[in-house]
Amino acid sequence: MGFKCGIVGLPNVGKSTLFNALTQTAAAEAANYPFCTIEPNVGEVSVPDPRIEKIGTIAKSASVIPTRLTFVDIAGLVKGASKGEGLGNQFLGHIREVDAIAYVLRCFVDDDITHVEGRIDPLSDAETVETELMLADLESLENRIPALEKRIRGQDKEAKKTLALVEAALAVLREGKPARAVEIAPEDRRAFKQLQLLTSKPVLYVCNVDEASAATGNDHSRQVEAAAAAEGAGVVAISAKIEAELAQLSDEERTEFLAELGLEEPGLNRLIRAGYQLLGLITYFTAGPKEARAWTVPAGTAAPRAAGVIHTDFEHGFIRAETIAYDDYVACGGESGARDAGRMRLEGKDYIVQDGDVMHFRFAT
User: Fold this and answer.
1) Listed residue (75, 67, 69, 91) closest to 4, CA to CA
2) What is the C-alpha separation between 113 and 18, in angstroms, rounded?
3) Exposure b/e, 233-258, CB count within 10 A at least 16 = b
4) Are 66 and 285 a contacting pair, CB within 8 Å?
5) Each residue of 235-247: pLDDT tens digit?
6) Within 13 Å, how many C-alpha atoms sit on residue 169's CB side?
7) In whole angstroms, what is the distance from residue 311 CA to residue 200 CA?
8) Do residues 285 and 59 touch, judged by C-beta distance below 8 A?
């Protein structure tokens, strides 16, 4: 129940290598030529969170189920992709339903790996990718107008509202700005999201750096960091080559390898945290003899809505939530200890779930 992240980038930036490493699969062929990924690949990874393991141990749970993050990898984009150049345009539709889009940018120099543009310039690469996504959005919106106008002639009020949103987005896109720049009233945000515009989604810049720069970044990645800060985007520096090596190691070997490189954790962990922060997500937990499980919800989610992530019946019949803060759960040795110590709280429908809450929902069927 984590989030879904689309991965885009130019050819030969290390996108498929990163995808393979993150998902620990060989689903996407990584090769030194454009368009080696010829169909969209989808991979899932467990979100690393040591808290769930601790909770599972205390609760003596038979299984521990972390939340999941889905990556959708598409073919490398090139200039003109939205108009049929290359193969990337065939797969843009596969990322319209993702929560965020990761732009993988080449921030390393390697004479053995060609660059489709013949130079290393991550900001220019990001602009190329963004332009193609904007062009794809323009085409998508323009294609919707005839059908909306027909519905409006039939006195369809919703179509009229949708057309107003479409025209607002088109105005911004035609100025060379992404759909994220459209000013949307709070009551229209849900309808605007349903347009599934690629450039309306939050952006996470993934700087693929050389091995020597994995811990500190380099001049290229720092340029991207400055640009990301200016536009409120997320950014993380990762060495896809290192991540590929880590994927092949045991836990003990991975720890030793990271220490040698001066890294405290794999890039995956940093990537997930950056994505969670970008999307404003938190994690709460449920625990019992059968399983300990992590659940992801947006920050600010009320208890009934959080319960609905588990099952819609939990939300509809919500009565209360028995809630223990993670630190209290650990300090008191679990649910019974927390209850005896007065650290278990009974929360109602207005309670806003906090990151790390261990919860048990009471509901009426």
Assistant:
1) 69
2) 15
3) bbbbbbbbbbbbbbbeeeeeebeeeb
4) no
5) 999 999 998 888 8
6) 32
7) 29
8) no
- Which DSSP string corresponds to 77-125? P-TTGGGTSTTGGGGGGGGTT-SEEEEEEEE---TTS--TTSS--HHHH
Q: For 303-330, how does the pLDDT look when each residue is reduced to its tens digit (9 = 90+)?
A: 999 999 999 999 999 999 999 999 999 9
Global confidence as pTM: 0.83
The torsion region of residue 52 among left (phi > 0), alpha (psi -120 to 50) and beta comes to alpha
349: left (phi > 0), else alpha (psi -120 to 50), else beta?
Answer: alpha
CA pair distance 55, 358, nearest whole angstrom: 9
SS3 4: strand
Which secondary structure element, helix H or strand E, spans residue 18, and what is its range?
Answer: helix 15-23
Question: What are the structure tokens assigned to 231, written together?
Answer: 């536009």
Residue 218 CA to residue 162 CA, distance in Å, equals 44
